[in-house]
């Protein structure tokens, strides 16, 4: 079977691997859709990010869905041919964080397509994948592409949980990549009174408006565009910082109300913070990293029509054209979520 393997920066190859076989409690999945994520792009464009670098060839991909092709012993509740979204979160279940219910902090996490540990954890951009049945969320009624959006949606549901109650709140989203756009959708769904989104690209801001942002600001064209919200010690109750850009966070602090919460999702390296202003406003800084149980919630929310992620899937490209798919996904002028079709 074919897989998509990153060897180094700009060295992406389609390579054959042996066909896997499902063991007990596992299923074999004929993969259907795989979304290209920011982390996949870092491996493709730069060979990694910060201290996390490719040290051996690694199959990319963790936003995936497919159809059950064979069922291992002991598996109940899944049928051959069924569409499933596959959670890339594979905690050990026995370390101290797993036992505390903080599986996203598992000491032995085997998250698909991650060069954090060595040997690297191979990813899921393959024609066939063996997964634990417990990783599979039944995605009946969704397209394969929508099912593959469960992972980024889970990231945002976890972040929304960190933010607390959003009902009636004024929400600012900085950075309108897939995560920021999903934050717009989730904030609306959770009852936010107002959602304002910023970015530096007209294309992504257009998408933010299309999916329901009340107002968008292009901070490249108008760097002081947020200033009007600074009166009376600020306007927003919650910031979802999805850009990972230091300037986005520091320029948002003046428009946050006293007692506001910053949920940091963007991973852009270390930042200098306006700590004096944050202290005086009693602002809470809350990190958010990955997810675990939210994956199944995400699939149910999509299946029951609570929110639609469909507009964010701007391109679907056959696996054979993986290199052009990765180049396209790197172009924020025309792509939001690029998915591979296997
Ligand atoms: Zn992702
Ligand atoms: Zn663990």
Description:
It is a single chain. The protein has helices at residues 38-46, 96-99, 144-147, 150-163, 178-189, 202-210, 246-252, 275-280, 294-303, 322-329, and strands spanning 2-8, 11-16, 26-35, 48-49, 52-53, 58-59, 63-71, 83-86, 128-132, 136-138, 170-174, 194-199, 215-218, 236-241, 256-264, 284-287, 313-318, 337-341. With 342 residues, the chain is α/β, with parallel strands linked by helices. It folds into two domains: 2-149 and 309-341, Alpha-Beta Complex (Quinone Oxidoreductase, Chain A, domain 1), CATH 3.90.180.10; 156-287, Rossmann fold (3-Layer(aba) Sandwich). Strands 3, 7, 8, 9, 10, 17 and 18 form a seven-stranded mixed beta sheet that branches. A six-stranded parallel beta sheet has the order 13-12-11-14-15-16, sandwiched between helices. Strand 11, helix 5 (178-189) and strand 12 (194-199) form a beta-alpha-beta unit. The chain binds zinc ion (ZN) (2 copies). Residues 91-92, 95, 97-98, 106-108 line the site of one zinc ion (ZN).
